[in-house]
Write the structure tokens for this entry.
Amino acid sequence: MPKRKRNYRRQKLLRDGRIRPRTIPVKKMTKEQLRVGRLLYPFFENEPMPRTRAECREVPRPCPFVRCKYNLYLDVDPRTGSLKLNHPDKEPDELEESCALDIAERGGMTLEEVGLAINTTRERVRQIESAAEERLQNRPEAKKMREDVDEMTNEKDHSLNGSSVTSRFKA
């Protein structure tokens, strides 16, 4: 019986069956792949990209600006130039949520909901959140931010429930 070839290009799956994000190193792309990519997805310098959140709200969804750093379809590593396709099994116009700013504007989400939006696991989202909180606490501006948050929660005119907000930024 002949041996079957293994499919090494098979998509890796997350535990819940979603396809795992895929990183494409630009250095390993052939000149032909780069040429085809430029033809399929031209960079329109004349096309006005929104500069403020107010302008961004007026753009139809899903967001057509894949090169925007808030777009959830792909990420570009600024150091290496490699592309990370967050949803390799979908096209940009097939995403339910295409902009991180839209998600942030809606308010709080569970780790599971964030994981579904950026196509990663709940545990990885928790790790990213804790690393970001640690970086925020070590910044010199953090003390000023803590004071501002404490001031806002102490004022009676504001209706901010600051117990969960201030607990995260306490030193």
